[in-house]
Each structure stands twice: as structure tokens, then as C-alpha cells.
Amino acid sequence: MAEITVQLVSVDRMIWTGQASIVTAQTTEGEIGILPGHEPILGQLKDNGVVTINPVDGDRIIAAVQGGFLSVVGDKVTVLADWATLASEVNSTEAESNANQDDDELSKWRGQAELAAVRRAGR
After folding, report:
1. Dihedral sign from CA coordinates of 25, 20, 80, 17
2. Given this model, what pLDDT does residue 78 score?
3. Is the pLDDT of residue 97 over 90?
């Protein structure tokens, strides 16, 4: 089976490196799949995008990425993201709690804006 060498890197750390059979990524031009023997390419990663790596050994790797680039040269794929995290690193309980806090904060600000609008209208 043909393989490609893959590096998934964010600005602050090396996230994953190894051999894979396919890499898919969401780019600003659409989703792209990279197989062994792919032509050289440079693509811009989509903000709030997903990169998926199917390693030769092990489970599929899914990463959320924020900006950056994907480069294919020879038998090597480099994904350089401004920010990235693996799906396996996400604590769903903590993420849900943070989302609820954000909703509460948004409701608070929305209420203050409505109150200010009522006060301005009453002048």
C-alpha cells in the first residue's frame, strides 16, 4: 500500500506526524483529498475547518483548524495551521459549560443594550 508522510503542525506545537493513506482538508477552495502520488499543491485552510488523517496504523485523526496552509510536495503533506486541536483532546463537558457561559454573557449584554435603547427612546 502506498503511503504519504504527514505533518500536522500548529503555530505553537507539533500535533501529529506519521505515515498515512489519505489526508482530507477543508480549504478556501473546497474540500480536498490527498492520496499518495498527488501533484504538488499549496492550499489555504478554511477558518473553522476540519483536517482528517487516515494513518497507516491506528485510528483516524480528526483535527479542528483555524486558518493556515496545506502543502503537498513529493510524498509529503504538511498542514500548518494558525491554531489546531485534535478531536480527542476536546473535553465535551468543559466545551458545553463554556458555551453556556457564553450564552449567559450574551443574554446579559443583550439585556443591557435593550435597556439602554428604552432609556434613549424615553428621552
Report:
1. positive
2. 98
3. no
CATH match for 1-122 among 3.30.70.980, 3.40.50.2000, 3.10.290.10, 2.60.15.10? 2.60.15.10
Q: Which residue has the cell 485552510?
A: 45
Q: Answer whether 38's CB lies under 8 Å from 73's CB.
A: no
CA separation for the pair 79, 65 (Å, rounded): 10
Q: What percent of the chain clears pLDDT 70, i.e. is strictly above it?
A: 85
Q: What is the pLDDT of residues 35-73, one digit of tens each?
A: 999 999 999 999 999 999 999 998 999 999 999 999 999
Reduce the secondary structure of the chain to three states and give it as a string.
CCCEEEEEEECCEEEEEEEEEEEEEEECCEEEEECCCCCCEEEEECCCEEEEEEECCCCCEEEEEEEEEEEEECCEEEEEEEEEEEHHHCCHHHHHHHHHHHHHHHHHHHHHHHHHHHHHHHC
